[in-house]
Amino acid sequence: MKKYFYSLLFLFVLTSLSAQRFSASLANYEAYKAFKGKPLSDKFSNIESVKVIYDLRKQKMYYFNSSLILLHFDFATNYLGYTPDLEFFNLRNYSNTEKDRDFLLGNLNHIKGTDKWIFELAASDHMPIPLIEKFFNLVKNSTFIGQKLKFYLNNPEIMDWHQQQKFKIPCVKSDYIFGEIKYQEVVRGNNVGILKKYKIKDLETIKPDPDEIIILDGTPDILPNVRGIIVNELQTPLSHLVLLGKNRKIPIMAYTEIEKDNNIKKLLSKKVELKIQVDTFFIKETTKKIQVKTVGKKKKLTIDNSITELVNLSQIPKKGVNYIGSKAQNMAYLIAISKEIPFKTPEDAHAIPFYFYTKHIQKESISPLITELLAFPKKDSTVWINKQLKKIRDAIKKEPIDPELISKLNLAFKDAKFKNFRFRSSTNAEDLDDFNGAGLYDSKTGILGDSIKTFEKAIKQVWASVWNEASYNERELFGIDQQNIAMGVLVHRSFPDELANGVIITKNLFRFNFPGITVNIQKGENSVVKPEKGEICEQFVAYHFNDGKDDKDFDIDYTSNSNLNNNEPLLSRKEMSNIFNVSRKIEEKMYRYWRKNQFHPVDIEFKMVGEKRELYIKQVRPFND
What we know:
Blueprint: H1 2-19, E1 22-23, H2 29-35, E2 47-55, E3 60-64, H3 72-79, H4 86-93, E4 103-111, E5 117-120, H5 129-141, E6 149-152, H6 156-163, E7 171-172, H7 174-178, E8 183-187, E9 189-198, E10 212-216, E11 228-231, H8 240-248, E12 252-255, H9 262-265, E13 271-276, E14 281-285, E15 311-312, H10 321-324, H11 326-338, E16 350-352, H12 354-361, H13 367-375, H14 382-398, H15 403-412, E17 420-427, E18 443-447, H16 455-464, H17 469-477, E19 487-493, E20 498-505, E21 517-523, E22 538-544, E23 554-560, H18 573-593, E24 602-609, E25 614-622
Parallel strand pairs: 5-6, 6-7, 9-10, 10-11, 11-12
Antiparallel strand pairs: 1-3, 2-3, 2-4, 4-5, 8-12, 9-13, 13-14, 15-16, 16-19, 17-18, 17-19, 20-21, 20-24, 21-22, 22-23, 24-25
Helix pairs in contact: 1-2, 11-18, 14-16
């Protein structure tokens, strides 16, 4: 009877809290649970959040139902009688002083499945230290959380204060959260398929069926043609797996405890429906029909082999996409833009046109192998196709290159300040609006006058990557005519001593219809797009909160800090501001060059180089979201 009474009491309390819109305190997790909602930003996949306001005038605390009331402004307006508009509200209540402030605004976050509680301000809130500490202690003392509460350092200003040991409250960085992440949305969506499990090594000889949703014991170099993918390791948000998955429009997730999940094990070899959302996933047996994806009409590629000279990219080539490829053409645009905007591009940039690749593969030791591959009727024979692709690559690398091409390169670079040059793919099947091609082709370094790392060797390795398993299979999947693939080569000085490298997407990827750019950056040459196991890059969203143009209005919201840099920022505030302004201007200029009617996000690769920490932009392409 007593147990029944307590159950009724618990149900009554929970129902009462759900009906409530706000409370002055949170006595237990049930009270928190009744008010919890999703954070406004999707930067983490396993956070639940309750918004909190402290009214400075009335000295009252309000925890409010964050699934019903989405914004602090909405609560202040609808429940506290606040009358000024949103702009006025933001200017007063995110300022760097207590004077004229009406409210303190914060978020009480919980890492699901743990006993970790985090108090967070908006990254655009410039609340001074005494107010932060006052607010933190008010939250600690009015909730059941007590000593478990930590303050999250999410922008450069408060991280700097923490480094100077100015805080008297317990503070944490992103590693406190990342250590607890078990699930990560990689590409949102849902699909129906047969659930199968493979080892990464299996994919060298086995080709999963296109009606399967597959579980893998790592991150694949080649993305199989399947209905969905579950990997057991967390991903860098702008990795090649993410970009290719978005291009494919298939759901992908990371789940570090997949091996321990008995419910998923029971579903193996059954038809299931997989739904991937930012904060959770659902997988269950289903009778729904598997929709067969058909490849449309073959996409024809353009090849202009009439250009037989090296192309100097200091001038914009006319219709260069047709004879040097998109990557090299876009580099010419970047060089032109850099004359107006403060960034640098890789020096001595030239392009080797399609002509030399086409001439090379017409040799008797290469051409019949390609013909045999493309005529092969059994497209699902992974072992045979992979062997044939290797034969083609080996033949391309074995045949001597046209000595005239090497002479032209030696002449072009004879007065260059640099000896090391990077040779990068620039095919007619990458960096397109509807075909990203991220990570499909290879880049190699050649050293002027070197007997081992020769220009010839580097060029042939890049040419051979046209016939990588990943690039061939991705083109097949998208219905690209393999007969007309051609490889141009973008050549410029290499960067053996870069301080940091990164990727910028000119869009806030974690908050819908909110301004900003998303930046991933890593120390030195360590890859952002193909990180080593266990590496975490620095990631932040940058935006001008009040549409200002000066550093005062410039805000940074960290998702993570580099674990290769002791979780300290890799960039100064000034460098971040410069990256923000440069990337926005590049986006605007590129869409004029591409003659697009409206702006869409662009994908930019950059480096920080030398003692002066100069910003180099090395690539730009459309971002296919």
